[in-house]
Amino acid sequence: xxxxxNGEPREVPDGTSVAEAVASVTAAGSGVAAALxxxxxxxSAWDDTPLRESDxxxxxxxxxxx
Length: 66
What we know:
By secondary structure, the protein is mostly beta strands. The protein has one helix spanning 18-25; strands at 2-5, 8-11, 32-36, 39-41, 56-61. It has a single domain, classed as Ubiquitin-like (UB roll), CATH 3.10.20. It holds the Pfam family ThiS.
């Protein structure tokens, strides 16, 4: 199925979870947030939140700097 991840089209298998999609974008273990169709998905729900055709996922990684 086709989804958008950080504004880029991506093909993923049916049943892909938010957790799997996030893992394909970043290996960061912490400091990561995900929004599905403009709504933040709590990290505890990533494994149980399936993606659907045409979903838009934004993956944000905190960056430290000064």
